[in-house]
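Loading example: each entry is read as two labelled lines plus one structure line.
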Amino acid sequence: MCLGIPGQVVEITDAASMMGMVDVSGVRRAVNLACVAGDGPLEEVIGHWVLVHVGFAMSRIDPEEAAATLKALEDLGEAMAEIEAIRGADRMMEGETP
Amino acid sequence: MKYVDEYRDGALAKGLLRAIARAVRADRSYAFMEFCGGHTHAIARHGIIDVLPQNLRMIHGPGCPVCVLPMGRLDAAMALARDPAVTLCTYADLMRVPGSHGETLIRAKADGADVRMIYSPLDALGLAEANPERQVVFLAIGFETTTPPTAAVVKAAEAKDLRNFSVFCNHVLTPMAMRAILEAPAHGEEAGPRLDGLVGPSHVSTIIGTDPYRPFPERYGVPVVVAGFEPVDILHAILMLVRQVNDDRAEVENQYVRAVTAEGNRIAQALMAEVFEHRESFEWRGLGTLPDSALRLRPRFARFDAERRFDMSSSGGRDHPGCACGAVLRGRLEPWECKLFGRVCTPDTPIGACMVSSEGACAAAWLHGSRSHSPDVPEEVSHV
């Protein structure tokens, strides 16, 4: 029930009732956008990625933060692989079989 | 799917597992609770338990709205469904939860009651508009994630002056349940587990933000890391918790920065505050009666409150005597430590709520298994 699904807002269908269409994995769904609206016109949310729960967009996804998290985790993965490689090399130097 | 697949990436997960394995100290153990049932499900589904270091244990929390709904409220909903004037609408998860006498909403429906499974509260509102001769009741449950949508439909019903729509409100509040877990005594019937850290919920936190968790590190010395729902998110949060424990820090940290902020979603919060007020207390299955832990409609919306429109005196229903859902919800018992688990209680024939909901700890343990399974569960029932 709490498992929202990411989708991209593609169209405003009824600004008065805050309804729009969200593309969720290629399927267009009518979604209430009231909770992700900004101060300006509702059209402003078109193109944004949102998390959809029970027919409502409940939060926007920040693409920059998403990219920064992935970058940090990729760097961590590389660092870990490097450490393992160094440890593997050390063991080889000590005469162990890898 | 964008914003999902990246966080299921095997290479990223491997890097995180290596980092966790390097970070954990051999001279101590780590016990973390994932509060949210969505996390419980993801941890089981992706086999995370099986790849974590042996001295790192994940304990399931009470963050499954269907599981914590007490029997009395469920019985009241069942009685409402049998009212010939009523169309009762609710989410799929609730349809198969057994009430006091093993009765379920789906059984009531088969017997002729007008029970509708809906995806969105907007569907319930639509049913009320389309069927003015029916009393349409939305059986609302959930933590803060599903609360703003309920608030939105109550406001819409007011705007449309709908006379035949009401809400049976069972919305509950995450921070009070977390507090109950952290304040549980170390010993006795009501005991809780020893906790070194909490994985905070993903989507509840998009609404309330991370600020409401700040008292937990301050008061109880327990770190909280809010995490996304994907396996890479969860592993990342576990690494962040291990680092806090090792550094002797207790802080609120946010792993799910792409969707969660410190202050949360102000629009959704305003909507909730406009429509709902806190109940003085509310009964939770497993956690008992907790003050200030649930919501009801404000007096302005009293005419949309099913508890005022219908006679809903609680029957004070009882759980099955052998069912250990309460202890499982408190993190005291693992699902397979319940004597009913896998024998008489399975997803096909659930006795307790934790076996019904996809977010329930017992359903997750049954469907996905794990290394910690009790060896005495017969082979033929230990796999689906």
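The helical segments of chain A are 63-93.
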